[in-house]
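Lab notes, practical 5.
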Amino acid sequence: MAHNQSATATTAMFLKSVTLLAGLTDQQRSAVGSVLLEEKYTHGQVIVRQGTVADSLYVIKHGTCVAHVLHSKSNSPDGEDLGREVARMGPGGVFGESALQDTTMAQKRQASVVVSGDVTMLRLNRTDFVELLGELNDIIKQNFNEKVMGSMEMFKALTRTQQAVLVDSLVEERYYKDEDIIQQGDIGDSFYIIVSGSVRVTREEPEDGTIIMIKERLLPGAYFGEMALLQEDGVRMATVTSNEDTVVMSLTRETFTEFLGPMNDILTRETERRQRDIERSRRPPIKLNQLDHVKTLGVGAFGRVKLVKHKGTGLPYALKCMRKGQIVQMKQVAHVCNEKDLLDMCDHPFILGLVGHMQDEREIYMLFEIVLGGELFSELNKRKTFDLPSTRFYSACVSSALSYLHERQICYRDLKPENLLFDADGYVKLCDFGFAKIVEDRTWTLCGTPDFMSPEVITYRGHNSAADWWSFGVLIYEMLIGKAPFAATEPMETFRNILGMDPLFPWVFPQEAKLLIEATLDRNPMQRLGSLGLGALDVIEHEFFGELSFAELERRTMPAPFIPNVMSPYDGSNYDDYPIEDGSLQPDEEEQEQLAYYETFNTDKGLFNTF
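Output from the prediction step:
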């Protein structure tokens, strides 16, 4: 029995290579794996013949198959001539897809497939598939409803029935690379959700015809086109173009308007975000020589963070400075560029906002909005624990930010008190996206902070956004108890605790908090709160948050439980003191070595071209 379960699990993993089945969930692929038939063929055997009814899907497990097409049947009265060779397929190769896509059972084979050498095949009979799951197109559409619609913030206001009706109204559209989906100035009659691929958003300024980039990349789960539908004249304010071959779902104006009521608050906030994007894109970029150094706020592995003041406006910012040589030496170029790209995609009240980025010969820089209230970690250390209302407030900020990231398929992967900063109003913002990554299915990198790592990260089983919800449970526990639930003196001991120990709760502990912590610390990521059918909505609607209004929270109209002491826009007293830099320091011996290393690997000056 155990062997059969293992074989089914292995087969289900193998099915992930089948593009046609990419829209299935892990559970559905496991179910399909249970009815797959493993068949062995010897050299020269014909598996399927051109012109016969397509009733099965085939996946090559081992070996090679050759596809032949016969253009004139009269040349082969006995079916012996298979025609000319058109393709060779190895392990993971698939043929017979039309068997699952055709609902009439009348689809004919378009080619003959013959075995070259010994081959092991996996065969999926259409009848078994339909009896088990139903029609493939219906399944894909339902999965889209569950996974994409259920996780998107704007559709959370709809009931499950309304979401299902909405999905039935969606129409799939496909666009090639660099094809315009909507054009500025046109009358908008559709709203779009990205299913796969990515798009960029640009706008032509009417005064001088300058093309400005509003968003370089919108990814699956993002939507666009709603602004024209919300305005009376319906005129498109920007052009949206595919960066690659892209699939979108479109919704007509009539259907969109029908569901507008429940979504109105969310769409209003999104419209404000889009307007901010346009305004930001119109501003001239801030240059390094326009910034005066006020104070160093922090020092990290790749450089430091400075409080700076813009000479022209007097506005304060945080400037993250990173040495190129050190980044190259530690093989972090792709990670740093990825961090910039992900932050560029984000605009959320509880995520530290990226204002700009720049570079010179020695360093690269990221310019952020300033938050001067200090780290949540420092305040927690000072108080030892937070009370329940404070924990609820900060947890709500974090869950709102994680929900926003997960909608965009961004897995944060480093949630901890040190990465939460207080702004002057007492709200917390998520910072440091060094480990963040776009994860469409799963990723296997070991990263994060030991106390906050999930079991699947530690054991290399592959992880996704469910790992963030594990860290979220650890964070709530630490805020209420004063230490992480699995903390130990050595990382390996911490890992053993995470894999085998249940969190301990004192006799007097808020029941609703305990239930939320236990639900997010489920060792099975597929059963963990936050990764179930409703995604982040399951967390946000948990009884732990009671009557807390996330709409008020995200509008920042809710009073914070703690207001940090910030005396001026340039008051860095809530951060540690570091030696003053006058900007004229020459590279020390270590940095000279790093710069030499950088120059060695950057002969074409292209390492940081994408930054």
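Observations recorded by the TA: The CA atoms of residues 12 and 33 lie 5 Å apart. The domain at 138-282 is CATH 2.60.120.10 (Jelly Rolls).
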